[in-house]
Amino acid sequence: MTQTAETPAIAALERYEAVIGLEVHAQLLTVSKMFCGCSAAYTDAAPNDNTCPVCLGLPGVLPVINRQAIEYTVRTALALECEIPEFTKFDRKNYFYPDLPKGYQISQYDTPLSRNGRIEFPVGGETVRCGITRVHLEEDTGTMHHAGDVLQSATQSFVDFNRSGVPLMEIVGEPDLRTAEHAREYLVRLRQLLMYIGVNDGNLEKGSFRCDANISLRSREAAELGTKVEVKNMNSFRAVHRALESEIERQAAVLDSGAVIQQETRGWVETRGRTVSQRSKEYAHDYRYFPEPDLPPLRLDSAFVERVRASLPELPPARARRFVDQYGLNAYDASVLTSTREDADTYEELVRLGVAAKLAANWLMGDVAALANEHRLGLRDSGLGIAGLSRLLGLLDSARINGPTAKELLTELYVRGGDPEAIVLERGLGQVSDETELEALVDAAIAANPVAATDFRGGKQQALGQLMRHVKEATGGRADMPLVNRLLRERLSR
Ligand SMILES: [Zn+2]
Question: How far is the CA of 84 from the centre of ligand 1 (A)?
Fold first, then answer.
């Protein structure tokens, strides 16, 4: 009997090694599109509103390179420790699809904006290192919408070009990942990084951050790679994990039966929990790439690259390490508190306002996180705000209110706001921590609960709870409970 639940994919990985490489497409947060002046904010626009002759692909128009998109791509490449070649150019990738009116996509083929980067992240105690082959820049396509009338068995298709020409960065990872868990964590970290440096909004559902996976299996003894399959249509981290596990299982079964893996593209079907074959895989030569004749090649001088490098913020792994060193947090807390740039900024602002480092960490990760989730409202935008929370925690830290009162006030003020100090004065919520006053209440509690007192003296620890509650209620919940606990124990041990 084994104690760990073993999935078929994990069992397959005892016989075969999975080789996984991910390609991520991330839309850049530029104001305008890649080669024209149309707005890149396409999701809320009416269909085909954000279009012009350039992004509609009309004949005779000339594209112009978006400087901000180049800068964001360089920014990403540097954050991923890539080399930035001095020379780069755009190429035409030729294929036909109704959402691509030009009949070609402007992309980059043999001279990408960057190469040879890396990303490192922890998975279950080990550090996974994954190479980044390249980060290049291209344009997004339009979108298709299909409307079917079942009775008339006629299907209408609509095309919306609002997304056509939105700057799209492609981040190609080396096939250095070995499990579905590696792949999911790679995506989590990459998305976090892109959001930290402000180039992408990380929305998998809306498709502004999307991922394809290449996966092959080889026997544990083999040196050469197996035939790879490309998996598409995964729009959540969970889908990526499930799709890869299912694909490992499928490929292992094919290989076990003595058959061969077909090189093909497969789509993940969430409802069926498996991948299905879509088409045989294209090769680069199918696209007839050639240099884009309407755009000049680019030379990125080192001054420009160094200026972009200098503008990079402190990145999540470095910031988490600093939180451990500077604030004495453990690695887990530091990683949670740096998971978004806003969270990390909020934490540091609280500490700057005088809240003790550990206290700030506990409250942000506990009650504040729960309220933020419940109200779909971050602390920064809440009624209480960062300054309000620092005042509330100041009252707690100076023992003017107790923990339960602080929690109640946090819940009450989180959305509507208010001055915690004024409310404490107005309602008389101040903590009762006067020893003489509490000693009298402790004596009264013992007198009123003789059975509990005897039980505690007889060694029944939980009998103390009843006595604690008595004192708590007598003070309207305002007693300094750790002090009450100590006083009760002292009295009862005499
Ligand atoms: Zn346009």
Answer: 28
Task: Give residue 256 CA to ligand 1 midpoint distance, Å.
Answer: 52
Residue-wise pLDDT for 94-132, tens only, equals 999 999 999 999 999 999 999 999 999 999 889 999 999
Q: Which of 282, 304, 326 is the last residue of a domain?
A: 304
Ligand 1 centroid, distance to 33 Cα (angstroms):
7
Query: Is the whole model's pTM more than 0.90, yes or no?
Result: no
Do residues 216 and 125 both lie within one domain? yes
How far is 237 from 24, CA to CA, in rounded Å? 12
Asked if residue 40 belongs to a domain, the reply is yes
The structure tokens listed for 12 are 């397959």
Residue pair 140/107 in contact (Cβ under 8 Å)? The answer is no
Span from the CA of 37 to the centroid of ligand 1 (angstroms): 6
> Looking at residue 451, what is its pLDDT?
93
Co-location of 149 and 272 in the same domain: yes
pLDDT tens readout for residues 27-47:
999 999 999 999 999 988 999
Residues with CB under 5 A from ligand 1 (ion): 36, 38, 52, 54-55
- Let me know whether 40 and 61 are in one domain: yes
Q: Which residues of 295-314 are buried (b: 16+ CB within 10 A; e: fewer)?
A: beeeebeeeebeebeeeeee
Residues 442, 421 within the same domain? no
H or E segment and range at residue 135: strand 126-139
Please, which residues have CB within 8 angstroms of residue 384's CB and are 6 or more apart in sequence? 392, 410, 413, 414, 417, 418
Distance (angstroms) between ligand 1 centre and the Cα of 160 equals: 13
- In eight-state DSSP terms, residue 428 is T
Residue 3, in any domain of the structure: no
Is the domain of 214 the same as that of 104?
yes
Judgement on whether residues 289 and 339 belong to the same structural domain of the protein: no
If asked whether residues 318 and 288 sit together in one domain, one would say no
pLDDT given at position 282: 66
Tell whether 60 and 16 lie within a shared domain. Answer: yes
Ligand 1 centre and the CA of 176: distance in Å?
Answer: 38
| pLDDT one-digit tens code per residue, 353-402 | 999 999 999 999 999 999 999 999 999 999 999 999 999 999 999 888 98
Name the band, by pLDDT with cuts 50, 70 and 90, for residue 5.
Answer: low
Show the domain range for 281.
8-304
